[in-house]
Design brief:
By secondary structure, this protein is α+β, with helices and mostly antiparallel strands. The chain folds into 2 domains: about 5-125, Putative xylanase like domain (Putative xylanase fold), CATH 1.10.3670.10; about 135-265, putative xylanase like domain (putative xylanase like fold). The chain has 9 helices and 10 strands. The strands form 2 sheets. Strands 3, 4, 5, 6, 7, 8, 9 and 10 form an 8-stranded antiparallel β-sheet that branches. Strands 1-2 form a two-stranded parallel sheet.
């Protein structure tokens, strides 16, 4: 895909993007790995870099408001996960932009999505805005929830009818079935006051997402690498990209009642979207 020069300037050659030479060097270094390992490695790359602040996409300085595909210095859980996946499927910094357009705006016409100044129109109807719809579309991996335990149906929300959202309750999860590079989707618990407000206000089923990685995790465990909006007292300081054992996160964060899982096939060749 030939990308508009203004789009590249706004996203690759921009002060808020990770330096192009760093991205290109990492793409080369990670190229021998399979796709799931590259997803985990890119998540760990941004965690170790440590220069990203948590900024919700719709906030005044967020990537949605700014019409950006890339803002490595300001991120939220959705942008962080997208970025890890898109870079894992790319061979160049510009190639990651093409991945971003295809995965965030499936079937959308880039000529309609990208303005003359390189600004991306996140109000375009081809954009997938709800997390569960992202999961269903398969752009962040194929649904593998049933492989990690007995998936059950979630209760309906204002947007999702009963039977559409299937998840694993915390207690039903088989940690041994999880893999490096899995994307984890955290299901809101309607019995938690804060989670219930989100479900009722916008009909969301998913309240957070991140990437699993074995790097830095206790032996036999998997760590959740994610853009954390708030502190987890005694575990990490929020407002940045952090790593925490998945079991610890599930035990401590009460607003989620379970998870769904997506994953990519372990192929070295670029996966088709």
């Amino acid at each position: 895909m030939s990308l508009p020069a203004a789009l590249v300037a706004r996203n690759v050659d921009h002060p808020d993007a990770r330096e192009r030479d760093v991205i290109e060097r990492e793409l080369t270094r990670l190229s021998p790995l399979d796709v799931p390992a590259r997803v985990a490695a890119w998540a760990e790359h941004f965690r170790a870099w440590g220069e990203a602040d948590y900024v919700l996409g719709d906030a005044p300085e967020g990537y949605v408001t700014g019409g950006r595909l890339v803002d490595d210095h300001h991120t939220d859980c959705v942008l962080f996960t997208h970025r890890a996946v898109e870079l894992a499927h790319a061979t160049s910094a510009e190639g990651a932009l093409a991945e971003a357009l295809a995965r965030r705006f499936p079937d959308g016409d880039p000529q309609e999505i990208v303005a003359a100044d390189g600004r991306v129109d996140y109000s375009h109807p081809s954009r997938i805005a709800f997390a569960w719809e992202l999961l269903e579309a398969g752009v962040l991996g194929a649904n593998a929830t049933g492989e990690a335990g007995p998936a059950v149906e979630d209760v309906a929300t204002a947007r999702f009818a009963a039977g559409r959202v299937r998840y694993l309750p915390k207690q039903a999860l088989d940690p041994s079935a999880l893999r490096d590079g899995d994307v984890v989707w955290f299901i809101l618990d309607e019995s938690h006051a804060g989670a219930a407000r989100v479900r009722e206000a916008i009909g969301a089923a998913v309240g957070h997402l991140g990437v699993l990685s074995r790097e830095g995790a206790p032996s036999g465990d998997l760590a959740l690498v994610h853009a954390a909006s708030a502190d987890l007292p005694g575990v990490y300081r929020g407002g940045r990209v952090v790593s925490v054992p998945l079991a610890t996160y599930l035990a401590r964060v009460e607003r989620f009642k379970g998870i769904a899982i997506t994953r990519f096939a372990a192929a070295r060749a670029r996966d088709a979207i």
